[in-house]
Design brief:
Structural class: alpha+beta
Distance between the termini: 22 Å
Helix content: 40-55%
Strand content: 5-15%
CATH architecture of the largest domain: Up-down Bundle
Number of helices: 9
Number of strands: 4
CATH class of the largest domain: Mainly Alpha
Order of helices and strands: EHEHEEHHHHHHH
Number of domains: 2
Bound molecules: glutathione
Length: 206
């Protein structure tokens, strides 16, 4: 059975929702950042990167959200989260998810994880001060050029939707008013109504 290591309010929510949407059997184990469990020897044996998410499969451990989402989408092709067999359509989804992973998530991480990039407190403070404007720029681009609607890729729900939902839920905490992005804001509202999303959020708050 698949096993997801997750932490509430992190990017692992996207993989968690995708697993729930897939209809497949999985278990989920919480990693408590307040106890630094992501750096415990036990967890580092699962994921030497010391990050969540990590997905344990019968063939080994997968890390990196775009890879985990693509794997779930290919494992469960007939589910709402199944990925298209057409190479170009699949690449479009991967392009969107790669942007979230390599640009949006990294812009957000400068708020609390500045010490990854600098030791100088003034440099860390300067990076923190840029988070709201960088996140705004990213979501401006998503709103005006990348989001097709009603779902991220257009008419069909995809593995890009839980990922956007997850990162859009960070906006308020990053000092950005999500109402500035009406399509993304409405997407977030509709995502929150999906049974799979409700179920995961209820389970991780429990
Ligand atoms: N590129 C990775 C990023 C994973 C990542 O940075 N996860 C954060 C939570 S959103 C984490 O585990 N942080 C723990 C730490 O930095 O100690 C992905 O998309 O899965």
């Amino acid at each position: 059975m698949l096993k997801l290591y997750f932490t509430p309010a992190t990017c692992s929510l996207a993989s968690h929702i995708a697993l729930e949407e897939s209809g497949g059997r999985y278990e989920a184990e919480s990693i408590d950042f307040s106890k630094q469990e992501q750096r415990s020897p036990e967890y580092l044996r699962v994921n030497p990167k010391g990050r969540v998410p990590a997905l344990v499969t019968d063939r080994g451990v997968l890390t990196e959200t775009p890879a985990i989402l693509a794997y779930i989408g290919q494992r469960f092709p007939g589910s709402p989260i199944g990925v298209p067999s057409d190479a170009f359509e699949f690449a479009r989804i991967q392009s969107f998810n790669s942007y979230l992973c390599s640009t949006v998530h990294v812009a957000h991480a400068h708020k609390r994880r500045g010490s990854r990039w600098a030791d100088d407190p003034a440099a860390i403070e300067a990076m923190t001060a840029k988070v709201a404007s960088n996140m705004s720029d990213c979501f401006d681009l998503i709103e005006t050029s990348m989001f097709a609607g009603p779902w991220v890729m257009g008419e069909t729900y995809s593995i890009a939707d839980p990922y956007l939902f997850t990162l859009a839920s960070w906006l308020e905490g990053d000092g950005v008013d999500p109402a500035r992005f009406p399509k993304v804001f409405d997407h977030r509202r509709r995502m929150a109504e999906r049974p799979a999303v409700k179920k995961v959020l209820a389970a991780i708050d429990a």
